[in-house]
Design a protein that fits this description.
single chain; 182 residues; Threonyl-tRNA Synthetase, Chain A, domain 2; 2 domains; 4-stranded antiparallel sheet; 7 helices
């Protein structure tokens, strides 16, 4: 996956816990990931998906409660960090559904596996499905849900409600969630 997802997580740690917090995190991860954290992450470079999972889980363990609740917040932060910079024009000219449709088309710029399908369920409701992702993981699903929620908000949606329909990491056949907003 692209380094932008890793970089946004490290940015969250820096913003909330400073450089000492990044050092504390680096001490809590595998040697390979530690080297990446210490050297810095290049946003446009490809990294192993396992590093993304490990980084999210380590941040949740070190700065959260170890229950992956923080992972969804990290996904929200990823939307703020990445979508308000490179793709900010999308949010100025597009509707919520238009922006979410573009996001599904840009999946392969960030992942080398699977794709995202966005289906309209009504004027202010969509369903997201992550299809054919090679290594489903709960941290990824939670991160995508947080990212989608914040993307809706950045696009002008208010009072966003997210419902997880199913998750492959929990034994289901598909990873699906729904978003509704005012």
């Amino acid at each position: 996956m692209k380094g932008s997802a890793l970089a946004s997580r490290l940015q969250w740690v820096r913003l909330n816990h400073g450089e000492a917090g990044v050092n504390r995190l680096a001490a809590a991860v595998s040697p390979d990931l530690r080297a990446r954290v210490e050297q810095g992450v290049v946003m446009a470079r490809w990294y192993p998906f396992d590093h993304f999972v490990e980084l999210n889980l380590a941040i949740d363990r070190v700065y959260g409660h170890g229950d992956q609740t923080l992972v969804r917040l990290l996904g929200r932060h990823g939307a703020d960090a990445n979508l308000t910079t490179i793709y900010r024009l999308f949010f100025k000219v597009g509707t919520v559904k238009w922006v979410l449709g573009r996001a599904s088309r840009l999946w392969n710029l960030h992942y080398d596996s699977g794709h995202m399908v966005v289906r309209s369920l009504g004027p202010r409701q969509v369903e997201f499905e992550v299809v054919d992702f090679a290594t489903p993981h709960r941290a990824h699903c939670l991160s995508v849900m947080g990212w989608a929620e914040r993307s809706v908000e950045l696009s002008g949606g208010r009072d966003v409600t997210t419902t997880e329909v199913s998750c492959r990491a929990l034994g289901a056949e598909r990873c699906v969630f729904r978003l509704a907003w005012d």
